[in-house]
Amino acid sequence: MTIRVGLGFDLHRLEEGRPCILGGLTLPHPTGPAGHSDGDAVLHALTDAVTGAAGLDDIGTLFPDDDPRWKGADSATLFSEAVELVGQAGWVVVNIDVVIATEGPKIKPHRSAMRARIAELSGVEPEAVNVKGKTLEGMGALAGGAGVAVQAVCLLEKG
Ligand code: MG
């Protein structure tokens, strides 16, 4: 069996009045990730993880943020396109693991729904997707809810 692992990372500022879109869900929170697209740092990190594992271009090359086509884009659409490209290259997603570091929205109450949503977009069962929230222990520029940082890892196998 041929397997490949891919790693993705992303971070966004959290700003007042932006919808709090993370992991393909809209969370009930007064701030949300700023960005050219909807700012979904979870799906952006995941997009880089899946395309990285398959040896494809990164998110910034596939979906440039100076391209008006992606202004306000639904990151679920971008991630789905990335999964499609990975599939066309002969790869199938095996599992996904995600760490969301933020002191903005609480992640724990939304873990199950986020796992299910990411699984749906990735074409795997929810048990093949994990999501963990971490606080920043009040340290650094993202502390106090100023931002969200995400690490994602994805395993692919040759289909
Ligand atoms: Mg991003």
SSE layout and pairings?
Blueprint: E1 3-16, E2 20-22, E3 25-27, E4 31-33, H1 41-54, H2 59-62, H3 75-88, E5 91-102, H4 111-122, E6 129-134, E7 147-158
Parallel strand pairs: 5-6
Antiparallel strand pairs: 1-4, 1-7, 2-3, 5-7
Helix pairs in contact: 1-3
Overview of this protein structure:
The protein has a five-stranded mixed β-sheet with strand order 4-1-7-5-6. The chain has a single domain, classed as 60s Ribosomal Protein L30, Chain: A (2-Layer Sandwich). The N and C termini lie close together (9 Å). The relative contact order is 0.26. It is globular, with a radius of gyration of 15 Å. It has four helices and seven strands. Helix 1 packs parallel to helix 3. A hairpin with a 2-residue loop joins strand 2 and strand 3. Helix content is 28%, strand content 33%. The chain binds magnesium ion. Magnesium ion is lined by residues 10, 12, 35, 41, 44. Magnesium ion (MG) is lined by residues 10, 12, 35, 41, 44.
Which features characterize this protein?
single chain, 60s Ribosomal Protein L30, Chain: A, 4 helices, binds magnesium ion
Q: How many discrete structural domains?
A: 1
Percent of residues in β-strands: 25-35%
Poorly predicted sequence stretches spanning 5 or more consecutive residues: none
Bound small molecules, by name, code or SMILES, are: magnesium ion
H-E order: EEEEHHHEHEE
Shape: globular
CATH topology: 60s Ribosomal Protein L30, Chain: A
